[in-house]
Design goal:
It contains 11 helices and 19 strands. By secondary structure, it is of the alpha/beta class. It has 2 domains: 267 residues, Zn peptidases (Aminopeptidase), CATH 3.40.630.10; 136 residues, Glucose Oxidase, domain 1 (3-Layer(bba) Sandwich), CATH 3.50.30. Strands 1, 2, 11, 12, 15, 16, 17, 18 and 19 form a 9-stranded mixed β-sheet that branches. The protein has an 8-stranded mixed β-sheet with strand order 4-3-10-6-7-8-9-5. Strands 13-14 form a two-stranded antiparallel ribbon. The chain is elongated and about 75 Å long. About 4% of the residues have low confidence.
């Protein structure tokens, strides 16, 4: 009996070690990738200072080192789009007193460039949404409107509907080009809103600035000096592959975006560790696994740029039809991979061509207990899986829930704040689920 028990334990240990070898995910290696991608040399992987192209060179080198073949010529799928890039000094002062970028003030990515001093005209937030009151405000201030910013103290507004509608106005200022008689807005907020390039692809005639309320006086003057150039931005997706051993003409697509928000001038960097150096690093880690353990289907590893500008990279990739869409077995898009203490979320888990994949993953996790929970939600255009679903391909988006993940779309999203304790279990679950597809 003793010998039989020992034999069983030895077999169990051997099985455990074998699984560890097959699924050799390494959170230390992934953290190194994340720290590299978030270093200042990459300029926040955005459009200023060509940070995304610097990151693309790094990712291409990693794929080569891992042993991943190029899927397109020299790994790069080239495309481009118009977008603003804010480079050089960004300065602001209230009544001559300098302020610190981001700590005290911020500029929207689409804000019209300026090098002048503006008079600030305070207005009741609700009056902006009332045409009659806004017209009356403009008449009363007609002599100075041409050189003024309208000052809106959002910290004094408690109506959530007004706040929502005002934010919509601020985010879509380019819609009003040529219609507003003043130069733009200065908005007092307790917390600087997250940066987003979704509205930074068309010309905007107006300044859009935010300020911490402790810095503002009712009738202050604001001096601004910064450059912000709208231009065509050439960029690239990074694309590699590992050939399948069983049905190499069929495809698994493992993807994630590598771009982030870049910089607000020369002094403010958005490192983007959680969003999405973590996802890009996970794609590299899965590529390492499949190079050592070739998959049944050919695996494509796609690292997209332009996601922060509105899914530009994945949309361009799908538009160029570089492969047979009908051969795609699954698209797994990985975004926001730090943390995960509470499990993972799968977007588009309930689709007709994805629900089996979700249910199989849940069933396997019930046995292996690799993550706390696998939640599901319906499809949404919130990451790079979406252009694939629009062409009928089975595609899901996975992100983590809970845990330590740094900031979001701000300078605090740094490598050191990323919790990767659940990482190995999450990625083992993803790999096993992909390997089980037939």
């Amino acid at each position: 009996m003793f010998l039989r028990l020992m034999k069983n334990r030895v077999l169990l240990l051997a099985l455990f070690l074998m699984v560890g070898l097959v699924y050799g995910q390494d959170s230390n290696q992934v953290r190194k990738y994340i720290c590299d991608l978030t270093s200042p040399a990459f300029h926040g992987r955005g459009y200023a200072y060509n940070g995304d192209s610097i990151a693309a060179e790094y990712l291409r080198a990693q794929l080569r080192n891992i042993g991943v073949e190029p899927f397109v010529e020299d790994y790069f799928h080239h495309y481009g789009f118009n977008v603003y890039a804010m480079e050089g000094p960004v300065k602001a002062a209230i009544d001559g007193k300098p302020m610190q970028p981001w700590t005290d003030f911020a500029l929207a990515p689409f804000s019209h460039p300026a090098d002048e001093t503006f008079q600030l005209l305070p207005i009741n937030p609700a009056d902006i949404l009332n045409p009659d009151k806004l017209l009356d405000f403009c008449r009363r201030n007609s002599k100075v409107l041409y050189n003024s910013l309208v000052f809106v103290d959002m910290t004094k507004c408690s109506d959530p509907e007004i706040i929502k509608n005002l934010n919509s106005v601020f985010q879509r200022l380019s819609w009003y080009n040529g219609q507003l008689p003043f130069r733009g807005f200065l908005v007092a907020v307790k917390d600087i809103p997250v940066w987003s390039f979704a509205a930074a692809q068309t010309p905007c005639d107006y300044v859009m600035a935010y300020i911490h309320p402790r810095k503002i006086k009712k009738y202050s003057r604001l001096s601004l000096s910064y450059s912000n150039v709208l231009a065509y931005h050439p960029t690239q997706n990074v694309c590699g592959m590992v050939r399948g051993t069983g049905a190499p003409d069929s495809l698994l697509l493992i993807c994630g975006h590598y771009d982030h928000l870049g910089q607000m001038g020369e002094s403010v960097i958005f490192p983007g560790a959680h969003d999405n150096a973590s996802g890009a690093s996970s794609v590299l880690d899965i590529a390492r696994h499949f190079c050592k353990n070739p998959p049944y289907y050919t695996a494509l590893f796609l690292l997209f740029s332009g996601e922060e500008a509105g899914l530009m990279g994945s949309t361009a990739f799908v538009k160029d039809s570089l492969f047979d869409f009908s051969k795609v077995k699954m698209v797994l898009n990985i975004d926001l991979m730090c943390g995960g203490d509470d499990g993972i979320m799968m977007v588009n888990a309930t689709g007709d061509n994805t629900k089996d994949f979700y249910q199989a993953m849940v069933a396997y996790n019930d046995e292996a207990h690799l993550v706390k929970e696998i939640r599901s939600r319906s499809n949404a255009a919130n990451s790079d899986h979406y252009p694939f679903t629009a062409k009928g391909m089975p595609a899901v988006f996975v992100y983590t829930l809970g845990g330590r993940a740094g900031g979001y779309h701000n300078p605090d999203d740094v490598c050191d704040k990323c919790g990767l304790e659940p990482y190995e279990g999450i990625v083992r679950l993803l790999i096993r689920s992909l390997e089980e597809i037939r």
